[in-house]
Design a protein that fits this description.
This protein has about 260 residues and is of the alpha+beta class. It folds into 2 domains: about 130 residues, 2,3-Dihydroxybiphenyl 1,2-Dioxygenase, domain 1; about 120 residues, 2,3-Dihydroxybiphenyl 1,2-Dioxygenase, domain 1, CATH 3.10.180.10. The strands form 3 sheets. It has an 8-stranded mixed β-sheet. The protein has an 8-stranded mixed β-sheet with strand order 12-13-14-11-15-18-17-16, with helices on one face. The longest helix is centred in the N-terminal third of the chain and has 12 residues.
């Protein structure tokens, strides 16, 4: 269990789901991860609400707008920024595209949305009263975020310049994002064998689970599709799931030997 009170600059700090049907999404994630959805805001907030677990925030949920009609539900990862305006001002020079300029989110914080040089979309979040996820790294909560890109070098260069990331590469070839001496996320190079051409570069959220096989079975019973059945990696047992409205995410049963 990890309870968070602040995030370092550049660390993934929040995820939210834009859904065409908030009721369906709420039922699914409350059942799968034992989340509780709060009261939604009004139309000015996109009917945004926060999921909690044991009273602590774990993720957000909003209603897709008319411009997104026909699109599947989609998770967005947010990276902590000490000063969103300052960071957003560097996006174009570093080689990315700012697709949503800096905006105030009531008293909660400031945000912007960008696209990296390979086309993956990610958010920036400067927390004020809302720091992001208050609970991470336990079953039913976010534990990892990974960028899948077809140009690993360009992505590493872009985020290195924008956020000061450095990188570790494991013996198995996994690339980890390093902030403040800690591995806080990953990067994966997309290949034609694993990723059809129509799959764009993207960020994948990972949720910790106690039993990957049991959680995959539960997800199927709740209306999801197990895109990649549970398989073993050096860090644990992983599955990739498409929720009932098409939002992609991964679950991971961490190897107890490496959990700290």
């Amino acid at each position: 269990m990890t309870e968070m009170t602040a995030y370092e600059h550049g660390v993934p700090c929040w995820i939210d789901l834009m859904s065409p049907d908030r009721a369906v999404s709420t039922r699914f994630y409350e059942s799968l991860f034992d989340w509780q959805a709060g009261e939604p805001g009004g139309p000015e907030s996109g009917f945004y609400t926060q999921f909690t677990k044991r009273g602590l925030t774990v993720a957000g949920l909003g209603q897709q707008n008319a411009e997104m009609a026909g699109m599947p539900a989609m998770w967005t990862t947010y990276l902590a920024a000490d000063d969103v305006a300052e960071t957003a001002a560097k996006v174009a020079e570093a080689g990315g595209t700012l697709i949503m300029p800096v905006m105030d989110v009531f008293e909660f914080g400031k945000m912007a949305i960008l696209m990296d040089p390979s086309g993956a979309v990610v958010g920036l979040w400067q927390g004020l009263s809302h720091i992001g996820a208050q609970l991470v790294n336990e079953p039913g909560t976010m534990c990892w975020n990974e960028l899948a890109t077809r140009d690993l070098d360009a992505a590493e260069s872009f985020f290195g310049e924008l956020l000061g990331w450095t990188y570790n590469t494991s013996d198995e070839g996994f690339h980890q994002i390093v902030v403040g001496g800690r591995e806080v996320g990953g990067l994966m190079e997309m290949t034609p064998e694993m990723h059809p051409a129509e799959v764009p570069a993207h960020w994948m959220p990972y949720f910790s689970v106690a039993d990957a096989d049991a959680s995959a079975t539960s997800a199927t019973a709740l209306g999801a599709t197990v895109v990649v059945p549970p398989f073993d990696l050096p860090v644990g047992r992983v599955a990739i799931i498409s929720d009932p409205l098409g939002a992609m995410f991964s679950i991971i049963q961490m190897d107890p030997a490496i959990v700290t």
